[in-house]
Amino acid sequence: MKKNIAIIMGGYSSEYKISLKSGNVVYNTLDKEKYNAYRIHIFKDKWVFVNDMEEEFLIDKNNFSVLVNETTITFDCVFNAIHGSPGEDGFMQAYFELLNLPQTSCSMYQAALTFNKRDLLATLKPYGIKTAESYPLNLGDVVDEDAIIAKVGLPCFVKANKAGSSFGISKVYKKEDLQAAIDNSFKEDNEIIIEQFLDGVEVSVGVISYKGETLVLPITEIISENDFFDYEAKYEGKSQEITPARISEDYATKVRTEAKKIYEILGMKGFSRSEFIAKNNEPYLLEVNTVPGLTKESILPQQAAEAGISLQDLFSNAIEEALKN
How far apart are CA 267 and CA 22, in angstroms? Predict the structure, then answer.
């Protein structure tokens, strides 16, 4: 008997458009012989099932069911394609855990931790994971520009602490531009992180639970046409993403080792994509994404293809792993 799969997409953050693209790729790719797929749009003002005629049916939040033409549809598993809040920060994970409904991403705690860049880096530091020097700032704090520059130097990156797809991020070269960058980041989040600029090769590596094992995917080298790997570079073709990365086997081994170590330290499941930058031939962690992009331009699907895993297999495996767990 075919399983009913709810593909949740949208979300409450600036990433909702990317999430809708990811969710539709999953919907169009899932094996229709094995699964009945349902597109579920999650927005602040509505949770709805959207059918192929773009008709909307309200989700009953009490049990995550939907009434369609007098028939109540329930779900066997949720495929999480929401980037940002509430799909990547732990809220949807907690909701589904309370309902005892399997879902494809990591658990509530791991999602909340990885979504908070400051807390993630602090948690991993005792395990020897290398990170750039950073300076935390909360909305309302006094901005001591001299202290910030003394800690992280120039140029530096100013980032929203809890945001993705490079929303709320700026590269700052001059002291007089620092406040504007801080203001920009506070548009996305009330916490920010200001990081030292590391001048090296940037790489991204996916780690997934695949057929009961932790699998590290081929590494992608990122070369942005812009000043850094920003929204345009990620989603509008302003970058080269080369898989496998053109890096030495020694450095590739270090990246694979660190990515798998992070996945296992955090007790992850489902998808993850970790970003690193090289300094003195050592990988420095930038961030970990637990609901990475699944569009045709996205990095994780590129890596899966290089590993010989089709999109259909990638998505089916995520569902089967969730059902098994």
Answer: 25
Q: What is the secondary structure of 117-178 as a DSSP string?
A: HHHHHHHHGGGT--B--EEEEETT----HHHHHHHH-SSEEEEETT--TTTTEEEE-SGGGH
- Provide the edge-to-edge strand list for the sheet that holds 156-160: 134-138, 191-196, 156-160, 169-172
3-state secondary structure at position 68: strand
- If one counts the domains in the chain, the total is 3
The whole-angstrom separation of Cα 227 and Cα 229 is 7
User: How many H helices and E strands in the chain?
Assistant: 10, 17
**Residue span of the structural domain in which 155 resides:** 134-196
CATH number at residue 188: 3.30.1490.20
- How far is it, in rounded angstroms, from Cα 48 to Cα 197? 42
> For the domain that residue 278 is a member of, what is the CATH number?
3.30.470.20
**Tokens at residue 213, please?**
């094992």
- The tokens describing 35, both together, are 């699964």
Residues 6+ apart with CB under 8 A from 168: 159, 160, 184, 185, 186, 187, 188, 189, 192
Q: What is the pLDDT of residues 305-316, one digit of tens each?
A: 999 999 999 999
Residue ending a domain, among 152, 181, 196, is 196
Same structural domain, 254 and 185: no
pLDDT in tens, 150-181: 999 999 999 998 865 456 789 999 999 999 99
Query: Between the CA of residue 57 and those of 2, 47, 69, 154, 233, what are the distances in Å?
Result: 22, 8, 9, 52, 36
Full-model pTM: 0.89
